[in-house]
Design goal:
64% of the residues lie in helices and 0% in strands. The chain has 214 residues and is an all-alpha fold. It folds into 2 domains: 29-136, no CATH class; 153-214, no CATH class. Helix 2 packs antiparallel against helix 4 and helix 6 (155-167) packs antiparallel against helix 7. The longest helix has 39 residues, at 3-41. The radius of gyration is 24 Å and the shape is flat.
Length: 214
């Protein structure tokens, strides 16, 4: 039998074995998922009153209710609407994990708390950027920093804060941002780290202007 046909047969056998292995792994993962889902749907309600609820950081947000800028007024009103709502960062947990940990009866409430968190960090990001664009850099810096401390993973917040640190040549604070992002498991981590390191490299310039590559 020609060598070519032997190689073809060996390749076909290899592919068949790999497919069989992949199918077994997929089946196993599927079974594990549905087993966990069944357990989650039977989990009893747990006390969630001790969750780490997040307040809207009004201590660093200026009163913009009468600001001449309509966008700033609207963003401020959005933040005010969150003041009496329960806010929790649960972004690292799936619905199945939430049910297993806190009970299926708490799922709707937990989803609501996490939604409020997402609204909060997105609004803070927009507010910081709008203030920055209006040359209100000190206010933008405080709000962006508050957002990062609340666990935000919004790229624009980190870029904005790093730009502000670079303008004042605060290399150590950019390094802190880089260390924080390094611990992420997000798919966007590498791209953000690249941008932060590029900003850092400009810190020693007397006049710094950074335009993020699109």
């Amino acid at each position: 039998m020609p060598v070519f046909f032997i190689l073809v047969i060996m390749l076909c056998v290899f592919i068949a074995l790999e497919k069989s292995k992949s199918d077994r792994l997929t089946t196993k993962k599927s079974e594990e998922f549905w087993n966990n889902e069944q357990l989650a749907n039977e989990a009893r309600r747990q006390d969630i009153s001790s969750l780490e609820f997040i307040p809207v950081p009004f201590d660093v947000i200026p009163d913009l209710s009468q600001d001449p800028d309509e966008v700033l007024r609207d963003l401020y009103l959005q933040l005010q609407s969150l003041a009496d709502k329960k806010i929790v960062n649960l972004s690292g947990l799936t619905n199945t994990e939430l049910k297993l940990k806190y009970g299926v009866a708490n799922l709707d409430a937990l989803i609501s708390y996490d939604h409020n968190y997402m609204v909060l960090i997105r609004t803070l990001s927009r507010l910081a950027q709008t203030l920055f664009d209006s040359d209100r850099k000190n206010e933008a810096r405080e709000i962006a920093l508050a957002s990062v401390r609340l666990g935000s993973d919004i790229r624009a917040v980190y870029i904005l804060l790093a730009k502000l640190y670079a303008e004042s040549n605060e290399i150590a604070k950019i390094d802190d941002l880089i260390d924080r992002v390094t611990k992420w498991s997000s798919l966007t981590k590498d791209s953000l780290l690249e941008s932060l390191n590029e900003i850092r490299s400009h810190c020693n310039l007397f006049s710094y202007e950074y335009q993020e590559k699109l």
